[in-house]
Amino acid sequence: MKSHAVRTHKSAENLPRPAQLAWKIAEVAADPAPLEPAVVEMIGNRIIDNAAVAAASLSRRPVASARAQAMAQPFKPGSTVFGLSSHRRVSPEWAAWANGVAVRELDFHDTFLAADYSHPGDNIPPVLAVAQHCGLDGAALLRGLAAAYEIHVDLVKGICLHEHKIDHIAHLGPASAAGIGAAMKLPVETIYQAVQQALHVTTTTRQSRKGEISSWKAYAPAFAGKMAVEAVDRVMRGEGAPSPAWEGEDGFIAWLLSGPKAEYHVPLPEKGEPKRAILDTYTKEHSAEYQSQALIDLARRMGPKIGDLSRVKSIVIHTSHHTHYVIGTGANDPQKMDPEASRETLDHSIMYIFAVALEDGGWHHERSYAPERARRPETVALWRKISTVEDPEWTRRYHSRDPNEKAFGGRVVVTLQDGATIVDELAVADAHPLGARPFARADYVKKFRALAEGVVAVSEQERFLGAVERLERLNPDDLFGLTFSVDPALLAGGRATGIFDWGGGAEADRDVATLV
């Protein structure tokens, strides 16, 4: 890996393209370095992981709304949408949209945390959608996803967005554009322009994840994927993008990040170096913000030690800056203590999550967020006894570049009514690569089967898993098998009408050839 210094340059300096971050990203994406077997295996794991959480979210309103919008955009050859027959295709950017929302809705897929936050699995829907529509094969899909993960992780390692309240999809858009370019073997010049265009249109604020959090939290990554598809299409037609996007005098760093005097350092593979970044990422065993994963496991461990929870006087979670200020009491969000809060808000309240995990001895992607669960009086009482504080040592470990030291958990001090204390700590989740039970292929399959139960027929589950096992050998037609269909009755309820449905515009089965 080589570290690249990135800073603002005045327009008069005329920064040459090869010196620009977008060009360097494009060179990495276009580099045909071979994929390592462990990377191929992990990409398959994450395709399974995405499908698992999509199956569990199919009937939720935001997912149904996104799917209805996509169904109004039929296209040939097109791309598949989770839940629909693989023969029912939509325009690739709308497939990326619908599938991106399904994957993100439950906050239950993979994660990478460094200088900034990310869910690199959000790259899979747009890259897969384009691969299906463009007649690419399994090898091309693998090449594209390895590149998307690499660029996404490297940007997250080098550039912090959240300190400037910029949402983390600003790293996702460029990564997806790079991944699409890699899958299609596009020229460096084309990928360069698409990466910049994607950055320009996917830079938004972190209000998506603050205060009264809405369903846009799930839509935001899908939007980035959709914009990446459109950016690549546009530049393939010969159009350009704002340049240099990161380093420009009026660009990203100068006005949205740390300013014209700041310098960032982004690591990127050198020419011929394998793209291995996906191996640095980790998935979730529990459907909640990643910083809560280890703390859910810790609550599960501490519950029996505490016994009668009515004896608890207070619980203080000593943890990292991020956990304290984003999902802890340091956020100063009263919604995080509100029994009437949305699922999205509860997902970002470690106080609520720790209370429920203590009471239930675990976590469930639906039951733990149910309104009646959040309103339970004894839960509310316990919830309001929990607070967080930043501990400099946990912050240091959170930002450590040493994977053996990096930590996302915390130390919990439970004080009982009689003054006695119970103390325990956990650095990483059980499912983390360094945890008590690191996730491997069998765990991803188990997660898929559990979340798909009652939604996806067993025969369809087997067909999908079989396709993933043959990922490297899939031909273009086989790539349409990297989805699942369900009984249409499961998708029938809860559909609202929007602009695309006006005047019967959502007749998704109509022949595209009849459209004028």
Task: Summarize the SSE layout with pairings.
Elements: E1 2-7, H1 21-30, H2 37-57, H3 61-71, E2 74-79, H4 92-104, E3 112-113, E4 117-118, H5 124-133, H6 138-158, H7 169-184, H8 188-201, H9 216-236, H10 252-256, E5 263-268, H11 293-306, E6 312-319, H12 321-327, H13 343-347, H14 350-360, H15 371-374, H16 377-383, E7 386-390, H17 392-399, E8 410-416, E9 421-426, H18 441-452, H19 458-469
Parallel strand pairs: 6-7
Antiparallel strand pairs: 1-5, 3-4, 6-8, 8-9
Helix pairs in contact: 1-7, 1-8, 2-4, 2-18, 3-4, 4-5, 4-9, 5-6, 5-7, 5-9, 6-7, 7-8, 7-9, 8-9, 11-14, 14-16
Report the principal-axis shape: globular
Number of domains: 2
Low-confidence stretches: 505-516
| Estimated helix fraction | 40-55%
CA-based gyration radius: 23 Å
β-strand amount: 5-15%
